[in-house]
Input
Amino acid sequence: AISKPKRLLKYLPNGVEYIFFEDHHHYSKNEIDEILKKYRDYTIVTTLKDSVKLDKYNLDSHKLHYHYDRV
Output
């Protein structure tokens, strides 16, 4: 849920799967369950802002990664 997520694509390796949500997206339990089911063998990368929103779903911290850089 980044305002212009396609800017990040140049930093990702080829072959990475991604899902973009609108900025300020409110995740439903159903969405999270579907993502975890479909991508159970993947690591999930998210922003710090969205990791706070995802906290309530008690995701496995080894599958959820975020990176924070102060600009």
Observations:
- The two ends are 18 Å apart (CA to CA).
